[in-house]
Amino acid sequence: MRKQTKDIFISYRREDGYLFANVLAEKLTSLGYTVFYDREDLVVGSDFPERLQQAIMECRDFISIVSPMYLGAVKNGKLRIHDPQDWVRHEIRIAMANDKHILPIMLNTDICDAASLPEDIRSFVNINSLTYDQQDTIEEFITTLEKGFSEETVKRKKYNTLIDELYSICDESDNNFNVKIRNFIIRHSESVIEEKLLPMIEKREEDENVCFAAYYAAFTFYRRMGYAYKIHNLVERFGHRFEGYRFSSIVLSQHYSLRFELEGNNPNDLILAAQAAKKATESITENAGVLQNYADLITRGFELGVYRDKNQLAEAINCIRRALQINSKYPKYHCTLGRLLSFKGKYKEAIISIQRAINLENSETKDSFLRIMEYNMHITDIKLRQAENKIKKQLQTVTIAIGVLIIAFFILLVIIWRAL
Questions:
Q1: CA angle (155 as vertex; 149, 159 as ends), nearest 5
Q2: Which of 89, 277, 348, 384 gives 20 to 30 Å between its CA and that of 208?
Q3: Per-residue confidence at 331, pLDDT binned at 50, 70, 90?
Q4: Half-sphere exposure for 97 (CA within 13 Å, toward CB)
């Protein structure tokens, strides 16, 4: 997991830089940057606070507000900046030693003279600086200032906290990876998926593991919302990049499944989908979502007449029961179990299981209405299938009865013929 960092550290001299530092920090924070600047008075000569050093180490950009008093008042013939214990000197030295992106802002003063600085920070004067012209508004100045920020800081503003969130859940070796991704997409809107995650993947702006987490998050969101074409397009655009990831088998299985629906109901696509899902159950063990995905595809195969093998049905039921052992509160698992049980002729148990899914569904989530409607449609299908099978059995009974009557009639004719 990547350590969370601040974007910007603001260094200033309290005597005449505090007000500007405060306004600058508030404006930058309102724009989405994370900013650190110290608000506490530091006693001259006191030890440099560890929290300031840590903040500088964690930041990307270091802003120095060079006010007339930034180098400090003259004491004993020397500027305060020459005091080894001076905290502004400490801040600059730490920033330079750790290759921070330094942005000096000249506030009502000219650029420092190298001779006026102690040797350990003398190269500070060689850094390009900006001058705050008081004829400009602070907003106009910040627009200019942003052009000098590091690429990482600009990117962080663009993605806000998304990158940190994705770093915290991008370990694909974690069997709960898909659960963490599902929780992630529940917190975010479709605009976040389309305007931030997809461009991040396309431009390869982050570590590839983070890009895969973004890819899987987009897939999970589209699947929950029923956006078949968007899943299809997502895999067409990026699927080849992530073939080496275990959870890519889940995405691939959905890709084949959607191709089955969108491109002519070719049974081979559904078979390929089930094979990819089966592969996922073998590489990602005891993961409820992975087991559900395989069971659901087998269920669809039975519903569409692609599958008829009783052993396959039993395997799918076993998978979904294992998923329910892991998480008995997830509605969709109960629905899948019910659909499968209906193909064993256990219609009453099937309907009870799907009704349990409806009862467990959280009606406050944005897509719950769609899922509840889907569950009710499955109940209707099962009742129709039950009625159809009942009629078939009745027809079989009538057919057998008619057959028996016909045979009996012919036997009677034979007996009568012989008697004559």
A1: 140
A2: 277
A3: very high
A4: 11
